[in-house]
């Protein structure tokens, strides 16, 4: 989010759309690869929607073509898109992978989460506070 805000202030919107498009294509392809791997390694788990494997494999063929063409035609834009994705790696390690965090770090993460939820209106309002229960 911070990288996107900086790019919006410095660059033009067209470049930002190119970065985001590459990131979206990359994430969609990785998701479809995950779907195929899970269908192969865990065929018995419950799936609410099950499609023929020909559909995701066909999608991956087109996806690979678009991704390779994007890398060939605009390598700098794709590189910046990858850098934007990689800015999430430290956040993952600090927020998810690191299990035994000090209490001050946990409180900071909880307060940032609560602030973000209030800012974006992503949590339903509760009937009463936790103290009342």
Automatic annotation (TrEMBL):
The UniProt entry, under InterPro entries, shows: AminoAcid_Transporter
Q: Which GO terms describe its biological process?
A: D-alanine transmembrane transport; D-serine transmembrane transport
Q: Name one GO molecular function term.
A: neutral L-amino acid transmembrane transporter activity
Q: Where are the transmembrane segments?
A: 16-39, 51-73, 79-98
Keywords of this entry: Membrane, Transmembrane, Transmembrane helix
Keyword Cell membrane in the entry? The reply is: no
The organism's superkingdom is given as Eukaryota
Annotated protein name in UniProt: AAA1 protein
Biological source species:
Platysteira castanea
